[in-house]
Write a structure and sequence with these properties.
The two termini are 39 Å apart. The strands form 4 sheets. Strands 6, 7, 8, 12, 13, 14, 15 and 16 form an 8-stranded mixed sheet that branches. Strands 3-4-5 form a 3-stranded antiparallel sheet. A 3-stranded mixed sheet has the order 9-11-10. α1 packs across α2 and α1 crosses α3. It has 2 domains: 87 residues, no CATH class; 195 residues, Vaccinia Virus protein VP39 (Rossmann fold), CATH 3.40.50. The chain is of the alpha/beta class and 298 residues long.
Length: 298
Amino acid sequence: MRFIDIISRYRKAYRNWIFILYNLYRVRKLSSKSNYKIKVILRSNGKKCEVNPELASLYAFLLKYPNIKDIDIENNKIILIFKEHKLKFIEPWKGDLVSVFANEEYKFLNPRNEVVIDIGANIGDSSIYFCIEGAKKIIALEPYPYFFKLLTENININGCTDKIIPLNAGYGKDRVMRIDESFIPDIGSDLKESEDEKGKLINLYSLKTILSMFNIKEAVLKMDCEGCEYNILSEDRDIIKRFKRIQIEYHYGYEELYNYLEDNGFDVKYTKPKNIYNPSASNPNMKIGYIYAIRKGD
């Protein structure tokens, strides 16, 4: 993004935009950023507050999108109006509000009156999107306890408890694994097993098990789980055919996933992979994009 565009965004967002940009530049050089706060003055209403650098940046970036009708900051939360719905998010910088709401990247799944399995629910942004778009029920899997706490809190404050069933669980072959409960993940962190015997035990569930647990006959599937998506290659043909539409964010190439879905009766498209270096992942050299699959005949 051009520097002139960045300046324009912050000028539209804040009355003290020069001060904020200086502080954002300054914080990059600090070894510890966890307690760093920036005093901001919102241009829209003159509100003064102290926020962390991530929230200051997110607010400025969300303002430019026509899908976001209004936006505010309250007690370190983002408040936004999306399609007449007033939504609040705790620690929104840990999620991906730009992709989910501003760009509506899950619009393809057309969740109205559908059961949605949301693998990699993160802070709940995608699950809440499916809820307000009219999904019948959402099964939201998030393995990291830190994200899971945010997921449940965001579901509660947005009034989606009747639609969203949160599971502190991951996706893969059915088993139990131990993870570090104190670990604070980044949005791109993949799931790592802890060697500490005091770590928290969580379940990994296959799609077959999830469908059986909730007596689901048909559903749509969203997957964004930093590499665990390739576990779908082990799912039986009769299981995968119970999904009408599937959207997968792939992280290490699309070929195997594409062939698997096409061989199992789906019309499949994909976006061109982007080479991304993600230091939070076990394998940081990623080839990222989306796969879109529609069951033939639907």
